[in-house]
């Protein structure tokens, strides 16, 4: 079974994002809601999950399960997008309209992953 080329693009995006959690953790630590415990652990686990799921997307045997994992991950990190929108200190100097666009973008990314679940 061969996988579509656009699945590899999605996998690359998540792989690079996952690596970035370790290369530049301060960005991610700022957007983790303050009510969550142990932001460093959350950052490391979400980065590791992105890397593992990205690799899994590229393996025909695990690609469907990994796509479901991406959907779950996107849902789990949605509070960070809300936190960025509501908290200027977590906004990373992004204008409010950019932070607002991130919310429906999550839905688009979820749909993109959902395409590969069947």
From TrEMBL:
Keywords per UniProt: Membrane, Transmembrane, Transmembrane helix
Native species: Flavobacterium amnicola
Name of protein: DoxX family protein
TM segment ranges: 6-22, 42-62, 68-85, 97-115
